[in-house]
Amino acid sequence: MNYDLVIIGGGPAGLAAAIEARENGITSILVLERDRELGGILQQCIHNGFGLHVFKEELTGPEYAERFITRLKELSIDYKIDTMVLDITEDKLISAVNTEEGFFQVQAKAVILAMGCLERTRGAIHIPGSRAAGVYTAGTAQRFVNMEGYMVGKNVVIVGSGDIGLVMARRMTLEGAKVHAVVELMPYSGGLARNIVQCLNDFDIPLLLSHTVTEVRGKNRVEEVVIAKVDEEKRPIPGTEQIIECDTLLLSVGLIPENELSMKAGVEISPLTGGPVVNESMETSISGVFACGNVVHVHDLVDWVTEESRRAGKYAALYILNELVTSSSPVTTKGERGVRYIVPQKVQKENVLDKLTLMFRVDNVYENVRIVVKCNGKKIKSIKKRHLAPAEMESVQLKAVDLARVVGDSLTVEVEEVVS
């Protein structure tokens, strides 16, 4: 079986990339999705708030996904669901399995990795205590409640204030559960400001910053959890312990790009993002293997996933058509003061068609600052920002014509205080 382009993952990233590649002249495309339907995580996100940037209207997750699924089918793009990809080789031979065809292989000219991300589990954050039932990741609980029709608990404590945890605080309340508190280790929330207002404040759910769960108690089912304040080193402060009686503990403690396949293929992984190192084309360290969406770095909005994935689809099409430049030395990007990471990590200026979008996250909460872009230490762009927070993705755009005039081998982005 041979295709020009094979996309691993049929969520918002994979769908957007497939459609963009098709609209840029590639007709031989296959999307492989391991779930029973296309759409990815959006299918369980029945709340609204999606599509404000891409469609200029407010949609639910399934509504957002359906627009791309409908377009995929209109373009007659091939896809296989219930299909698990087992392996990708450096020469782009893909091994997969499903219940209808069994084991099969697909040879591709180009591959786009769009596998999304995973939730951190209790084991990843080492919460001590008994191994009682009733401990779920927030995403698992969301699927049970929204898609499978199971209520996971009646008295709930949520650890971590990531967006999924905040949304589930509201969802559990609407389903009749009592959410006692959202406990956050950091001194600031890990979710969007709008979700704090709409999911916690509107329902009088306490957000306990600089707190953590120090113990889970219960024999067969969770019966209570112990929480405590933490100091600046994130260590529990003795004497601040509180006991909260509950039957359910939901974990919203971060997402991890799912890159088992990427690593098996030999793709270079960034220690900062946990995802592939990519260039301006969203191409990885392996020629012809591209990546986009949460498999590269965790996004806060699906709209940004869509924009990034369209870029990957367009450049994958150019690669297949032999229209990408690969000869010159790339410019490297790096986050400096206040910036945790930048995507893309490498830039080949000749391939930037219209503009270069640098996406990044900051390492703390900042007020009234500037985002400064420098090339080899020389300032080339400065943007004032009233507020920056680690939970919110930031970006800065450089026009291709301006970038072409830049002389140097490094681009840096940093946070600079505004001197009044």
Shape, principal axes of CA atoms:
globular
CATH superfamily of the largest domain: FAD/NAD(P)-binding domain
Number of strands: 27
* CATH fold-level topology of the largest domain: FAD/NAD(P)-binding domain
Number of domains: 3
Sheet with the most strands, sense and barrel status: 7 strands, mixed
Write down the CATH class of the largest domain: Alpha Beta
User: What is the CATH architecture assignment of the largest domain?
Assistant: 3-Layer(bba) Sandwich
Distance between the termini: 64 Å
Mean pLDDT score = 94
Radius of gyration: 22 Å
Low-confidence stretches: none
Secondary-structure content class: alpha/beta
Tally of helical runs = 9
Share of residues in helices: 10-25%
Q: Estimate the strand proportion.
A: 25-35%
Structure commentary:
It is a single chain. With 420 residues, the protein is of the alpha/beta class. The protein is built from nine helices and 27 strands. Helix 1 (12-23) runs parallel beside helix 8 (302-320). The protein has three domains: 1-118 and 255-324, FAD/NAD(P)-binding domain; 121-253, 3-Layer(bba) Sandwich (FAD/NAD(P)-binding domain); 328-420, Immunoglobulin-like (Sandwich). Strands 1, 2, 5, 6, 7, 8 and 19 form a seven-stranded mixed sheet that branches. The mean pLDDT is 94. Strand 6 (83-88) and strand 7 (93-98) form a beta hairpin.
